[in-house]
């Protein structure tokens, strides 16, 4: 039935699509929606009934009683009872419509949110890299909300439609001449509402956008407050802000001009109808064609009917926003590029062997949102010649035909300058991304041929900045696996984290806060390491993971790894010379390629670039050094030896 | 200066609506401009709403009498009413326009005021950023308030007419609606609680989703998508239930008022007939009464939502006014006034009157010299005399600091986290004022120096080197507006950064992205140094970066820093002891006091805070500490610090020998 409403609109694209979405919503919750619509109809139709009862009461009870000077009290009681019953039904209708209608919308939103967030978890990292956190959050929140917003007033609008039909029929029955007035006024009313809804939306959305800009300027300016202040630029900043604030003001006034006109016109529109009814009614009564009760009925009808007709405006006004929101969410839901998994499993125990075979990876070009639908780079079998703009430097492979082999149980260090491709290489090893060419093989099996869950069972990665969940220490280590507390403590000990965890107020049950904010950077890293160690991975990958901890702690951690070499194969991305020296073999990356391989001493002797890199590290270490830690001033001997060297590091 | 008192005083008693309005008018005088005209329009607009019941009554009572129909009278009444309706529609439109202009204009003024005021607040107001977010959140809920006031007007006028028609029936109507009103008020409070839960649940939801998005690599690497998904599902469902709960309250209120309206109508009809039979009410008046009642239902129905919005708007407004009430504790003496409640130049003459009532007193401290002074020309020296600082209600951060820095000296301030070294830098650049004692630059007490002179000659380079979302050139120019690209380029070249600049995709025109996110932390610092170079201050205060950057940038930074501090007075808050090694003088701060001072070589030679710090640092870096056998060099003329252990002043030490390793 919703399709029939679509006819008065222009721009069939938005209207058509908007109503298609509405229909989807209706089909999603058919029963509750029906209840809401019944409620809506009950509400509007009792409005009609109300005017009927009032008209009858006027005619049969009020006028005769007042004229004759005595009343038929049973008739009065009947009229009062009728009015009350109609009112009760009307209240019931409103309750049904609001309760059921709200529940429909909230359920639809929740279902949509379930779908879109599951999709976030399903889509590969390469897809995530192209979409900002802010965009994905608003997809799951405000876009979903917009997508179902017009469903809320829809039952009311349908009720208004039913009421319109009944009212017009009633008018015709009551008096054909008066009906003509209704036939002019009511449709005008509906059309005006639709027109307004469509016109005002772009104005408010522009204001909304400007509001965002005002907020962005304020945000940036306050972020840089220290710079603004120390350079004495407050006046200029205020001027910059004032420009945006005034643009917003003008946009709001612009929208207000339309709304300020529309509101009084809408309010006034039934009035000419009522006045006409009175005038024409008086003439008709004079001619004996109708009675006073009928006149009151029609006049009251006009008063009551004006409001429900505004529901059309609400539905139509929300349609453009609905379509945009729905399309955005839909783009996420339709994004392809889930990793394809093979059937194979790894049965061997002990350390895994690793081989890279001309593995090549380029970042997918950053694209605006909405392009997520057809995305060749996210397709694991996709062809690597995706439509990257030729001049875009980011399309250059960050890992360029890299081949090497790591024997089971060995410790390999990967080093190179910033931007050499080390972290991208790590992502390939854990199959966080797939190479566009070449292959990564574990125990001789291409990662893409392994069954789902095999890679994460075998490989554990500790990133440069460990990500902690807003959960307990224990949960952050086990990630929901069934480990005993002894296991957890053992892992924490190996990660040199047992000391500070034991000192936490609730030990393993301490909540670490959002992103682990209650812990220092170095503490978070060690929890992240424990998380990897507890899984006894067959391949452990440390991506410059412990650089932010105290060198002595790092040495202890590495000593432990070294000691247990043979249990895991270890690939470690490093900058510190002391760490590099522990490795069986060093791989020197530069601009995505392997430019040196061998033992540390050999490389130092044979590769001038390697020697230069290490010298640069030394110099940087001297310059950057460590900052004096609070621990070392006398307390060091007594307190736990592990204190952060970077207490002031920004989170 | 103790900036705590005035806002606390004004916040203690919630300001009345009138007081809030007065404050607002003081800030934005246009608020009352044309107020009478707006009120007149509102009166006309309201009259339009009751014209229909009046015409209905006239028609029924006088047009359609037992003696027949007086079509002429009805026509006159209808014609007059039509004219009134046109008039009132136009009046409503004009009034709405005025209200929109008024509220949006006031909001814009308020926003700009608040923005400026937040910038004027000292760094002491640490939560300035949080307050800043309030500025942008001042929404246009004001139009909800105007709607609320309009409803009030309509109800009042309807009541007057109802009393005219029949006072017993009016009492009857009120007997129904007053209890409804009371119930609605109570429910509104409950609803506010429900909405608070809804907002909280959205927060949970967004938190869980952002974990899945930001933590995408971990979720994938550890195969915990299912677990993460369940957690999100849980928050989604909780959000949904909270929404449905809130909706339940709204639905209940609306239905209840609908029912009460119907019962009132039935009662009015019954009692009306009785009154009519008794001869005290005409048919027309009774029917008109029923029409008037419909004007009652809508406002009461919407009241829960309107009240909720109005309360939120008012709360938002008060929060912004609270921000504006925070005194600018560090004031530019050039403004020539003691601390006022508003920045003097923009407040306008009348501002003081409306606000004198609450708080404000007892502040301002010593009378500030009217015009302020300029710093003397030439290199600048620094002197601290008995300087102490404490945050309001906090323990002292600095205690009784005496310090003298000669012009053109390179001084490093070292100390552990929380020792007070950053506070020292903030006092030095007058981002805050000391609680006790005086800071002098070039012999002039800082509180007397005009900001225009101070900000041009003394510059703090903060640790994070904040960049705006502009090009490199514009970010550097931020230090000296109007400088051309040549000058900007020269600044980079002087710091030995020309090659780095050349390596950027678009050179000077490279955009740095939001907060400089397209550059690395070290590169942002490079741009900040170029900005300082272009600003060319006589006293440079550097808060050194702590985070390790990649080796190449690190080497560049060190060289640029060495170049930047050449030939000017510089005070570096050193987080790396290598900086201290290279400085002419080292000031060691511990627990808010200066405990040691002198040249690095002298300080490592004696037991104390500095030597301990240096030893542990050297272990971390993996290099052996510098030769302790080197001759004890004294502090030189640079820093003279009476409170320190005796270190004999000696000849000015030679420039440190190891600076060469800072060169690339």
Description:
The complex is a heterodimer of chains A (651) and B (664). Chain A has 22 helices and ten strands. Chain A is elongated. The longest helix of chain A is centred in the first third of the chain and has 50 residues, at 73-122. Chain A has a six-stranded mixed beta sheet, with helices on both faces. Chain A has 651 residues and is an alpha/beta fold. The model of chain A is unreliable at 1-11, 366-394 and 624-651 (pLDDT under 50). Chain A is 60% helix and 9% strand. Chain A folds into two domains: 11-199 and 287-334, ABC transporter type 1, transmembrane domain (ABC transporter transmembrane region fold); 401-625, P-loop containing nucleotide triphosphate hydrolases (Rossmann fold, 3-Layer(aba) Sandwich), CATH 3.40.50.300. In chain B, helix 7 (167-214) crosses helix 10. Chain B is elongated, with a radius of gyration of 36 Å. In chain B, the strands form three sheets. In chain B, strands 8-9-10-5-11-12 form a six-stranded mixed beta sheet, sandwiched between helices. Chain B has 664 residues and is α/β, with parallel strands linked by helices. Helices cover 58% and strands 9% of the residues of chain B. In chain B, helix 19 (551-565) links the parallel strand 9 and strand 10 (569-573). Chains A and B meet through helix 3, helix 4, helix 6, helix 8 and helix 9 of A and helix 3, strand 2, helix 4, helix 5 and helix 7 of B.
What's this model, at a glance?
Chain A has 651 residues and is of the alpha/beta class. In chain A, 60% of the residues lie in helices and 9% in strands.
CATH topology of the largest domain in chain A: ABC transporter transmembrane region fold
How many strands of chain B?
Answer: 12
- The helicity of chain A comes to 55-70%
Instruction: Report Rg of chain B.
Output: 36 Å
CATH class term of one domain in chain B: Alpha Beta
Major protein interface: A-B, 168 and 179 residues
Q: What would you report as the Rg of chain A, rounded to the nearest angstrom?
A: 36 Å
User: How would you characterize the largest beta sheet of chain B?
Assistant: 6 strands, mixed
What is the general shape of chain B?
elongated
Overall residue-averaged pLDDT value of chain A:
79
Strand order of the largest sheet of chain B: 8-9-10-5-11-12
